[in-house]
Amino acid sequence: MCSLAEKDRPIVQLLLDAGTCPRCVLRFCCVGSQLLYRHPQQDLMKDLQEFLKSSQEKEDPVCLDVADPPCKRIRLDHNREEGADDLTHNGAVPQLPSAGSGNTATESSAGKVCNVCLGILQEFCEADFVKKVCQKVNSADYQFTSFVFSVSLPPQLSVRERAAWLGVKQQMRNLGLPLAKDDIVQLKEAYKWIIHPQLSEELGVPADGKSLFEVSVVFAHPETDEECHFLATACPDCFKPAKNKQSVFTRMAVIKALEKIKEEDFLKHFPCPPSSPKNLCDALEIQCNNGAVFVAGRYNKYSRNLPQTPWIIDGERKLESSVEELISEHLMAEFKADSFNFSSSGREDVDVRTLGNGRPFAMELVNPRRIRFTAEEMKRLQQAINDSSDKIQVRDLQLVTRSAIGRMKEGEEEKTKTYSALIWTDKAIQREDIAFLDDIKELRLEQKTPLRVLHRRPLAVRCRLIHTMSCEYLDQHHFRLRLKTQAGTYIKEFVHGDFGRTKPNIGSLLNRTADILELDVESVDVDWPPTLAD
């Protein structure tokens, strides 16, 4: 069954007498065969009994090796390799059973909660718990083709593992036997070896460490919660409050403290080996989470009374809807996501239309239940958005990757944008008064942060370029100006000057007061997302 040698006999004896489960015994004997951990724990216990009863003179391993991938290890012997004082928690030399008392070795372990894993490698490896996890997954109605399994363990498990390891060291020294400096198999690793095949069979998909679909279990053990507290006195620097943590006794903080605390100080505060608890761990939470899905497209906005994102000031909504909400309403419903994050290549004011081929946008859908859509289904979703409102239209709606969104964000500052502005002047104008604007190329502006956005943007002077301009005379007080500009140019301020904060401006160029009546975005020159065939 297992690959145990004569040198492992006292370790097996000690741990079983202390109330350690068979799988944890294998971990402390550095057994790295995944298949062995999947054997029923009753069978493992019988095999360990037989091992203890077998001839002590036999030096060859009593069982066959099983070829398995290398396992992860955890180092528990942080501070000293050898020569530590043989002290228990009360300072006495431990009186431990010899390796020859195998007949009673399993009596204290059988039917008890393991004093090291607190039952995680016992009841929580059984088929009933696996079915409970799978029922939770199936009832959540996720689409997935693989899964990654994660587990959150109580931090006091690290304390108990350290105590059990020190007990093993003491026993070996008492017997005058050498102790290999190998590291034990991590509890999480052993647990996944056992549960992965069961989950995979029950769910019908493989376990994959790179999967975007995560099944997680959070364990707790209230009975032993306070076992970490002595570390805060011994190593106060390791336990600092954090805003997003309910307790300072996090797993990482406990591990850090265990690395710092001296062996003799640890043994003064904690029994070695650890005592058996009365109760099993609790599986507090069984959760599922799908990796985010990203949808991109381009939108046109035809309303001059529609903000891009919800317009809420001091908790009061100013307008009933927004571009973001008109699009997200349908995407959230179809993808069955928990939430979303909307982003776009720039933004327009509430009274500005976006025409032409539209403005690129992307939406991150967080924890979606549905993730697979055909091109035809995406077309139908796009049509549903377009049919729901005459204020916006969406095109080129498609699934994209997270990395592809970076191309859209690049366009916010690096690309050009084309606008059409309806301009009013206080003094009458003739065609020849504005004709010279057509000849201006690469006009450099200095724009202080506009007064209208100063409450949400830092005060700065930004240099921007007006690449080209062309005018269309309408009447003595109105003309239409088309501009191609550097991304990030404040067009309204370029027209009226913003009390001299944008220089030069249309008013100063014409030597009269000018203001903007209407503004349209005619193109956003970002070649993303890819254009789709109708």
From TrEMBL:
EC number, as in UniProt: 5.4.99.25
Domain Pus10-like C-terminal: 294-525
Keyword entries, A-Z: Coiled coil, Cytoplasm, Isomerase, Metal-binding, Mitochondrion, Nucleus, tRNA processing, Zinc
Primary enzyme class: isomerase
GO biological process: tRNA pseudouridine synthesis
GO molecular-function terms, A-Z: metal ion binding; RNA binding; tRNA pseudouridine(55) synthase activity
InterPro entries xref list: PsdUridine_synth_cat_dom_sf (IPR020103), Pus10-like (IPR039894), Pus10-like_C (IPR048741), Pus10_N_euk (IPR048742)
Start and end residues of each Pus10 N-terminal eukaryotes domain: 114-288
Pfam families found in the cross-reference section: Pus10_C, Pus10_N_euk
Region of interest: Disordered: 83-104
Subcellular location field: Cytoplasm; Mitochondrion; Nucleus
GO cellular component, one term: mitochondrion
Catalytic activity field: uridine(55) in tRNA = pseudouridine(55) in tRNA; uridine(54) in tRNA = pseudouridine(54) in tRNA
Family affiliation: Belongs to the pseudouridine synthase Pus10 family.
UniProt-recorded name of the protein: tRNA pseudouridine synthase Pus10
Gene: Pus10
